[in-house]
Write a structure and sequence with these properties.
This protein is about 50% helix and about 15% strand. It is of the alpha/beta class. The protein has one domain: P-loop containing nucleotide triphosphate hydrolases (Rossmann fold, 3-Layer(aba) Sandwich), CATH 3.40.50.300. It starts with a strand and ends with a helix. The structure holds 2'-deoxycytidine-5'-monophosphate.
Amino acid sequence: MKIAIDGPAGAGKSTISKAAAKKLGFIYIDTGAMYRAVGLAAVRQGIDTTDTEGVTSILDDIEISISYDESGQQIFLNGENVSAHIRLPEISVAASNVAVIPAVRLKLVELQRELAAHNDVLMDGRDIGTYVLPDAEVKIFLTASVEERAMRRYRELVEKGIQADFDEVKADMEYRDKNDSEREFAPLKPAEDSIILDNTDLSLEQSVDKICEIAEARKAEKQ
Ligand code: DC
């Protein structure tokens, strides 16, 4: 069984998806981490992440893989565990920029589909229900107001000891919303058969419970 969870930045996708996957006994795949790793590779090589040709030229030398340990999914860039390096605000923007480039998407979508072919997965991202796994049995579009999403991300950064400014966090989020939704190839949008879940006023536990309820109901229907 496949569960697709899409939505804009800061809707709580990763935290909620990780918890829901654990509860359901599914493997959680965070596809945003893959775009972040490509963004990080470009930034490290001094390539402008909006330069399609420049980014495309390094793709053959980039190998992305994932593994799991007690803290969850770990992401590797050419064998190096870069999980701790990909969460900085500048890498969020770099990820959103490289994600516009079709060659980047095709490379990562191949890996995502390969992982889903062999496991029961709960995969989160922007285009999982619409493009990566169009046959997913459960599709959820998780969203919240931009103020709430920016506030959540701001708190997360502060808790990690990363210096942040709320207005800047909100501006980055608005930039990413626009960039992710308006790109031509596999933009962020709810799949026609998705359930929209606005969690502005829901707690983390309530969102997780809601997703598990939907998944359990679908599973029962299938049996
Ligand atoms: O979910 P996230 O914030 O870690 O994702 C980082 C960026 O990667 C996001 O701004 C857009 C891009 N992305 C994408 O285009 N498609 C996905 N399936 C996942 C992420």
